[in-house]
Design goal:
Blueprint (H helix, E strand, L loop, with lengths): L2 H25 L7 H28 L8 H44 L7
Helix pairs in contact: 1-2, 1-3, 2-3
Length: 121
Amino acid sequence: MNETVQLNLAFILFLPWYAILAVLFWVFPRKPRTLMRWGFDVGSLTAATLATVASMQWSYLSADKAIDAMWPQVFATSVSYGVFLGVMTAAFFIRRRFIVARPLAQVSTASLSDSSPGATS
């Protein structure tokens, strides 16, 4: 097998699953869709991709080949998947705390002031 393909095989095989998780991260929640959120999502997905590829190559090269010929691929897949999920989970909670919650709090405050007893329609 080509050495480049062998080194990146874990990433290549998991690419469809990474793509599904990335689309779900991008799409949900549907609102708010601000420029800040778009930039954060792009940055998060880029960071997750770079961290995944770096951890996959590191773990493949540092795996003990004496155990089995397949062990470096198994180890690289496990480590890279864990890194991808870790980065995406952290990004999810950061986005929810600082980007999604702020506009929703402003909307709920505005709707409360609109429904005050003195307001007329």
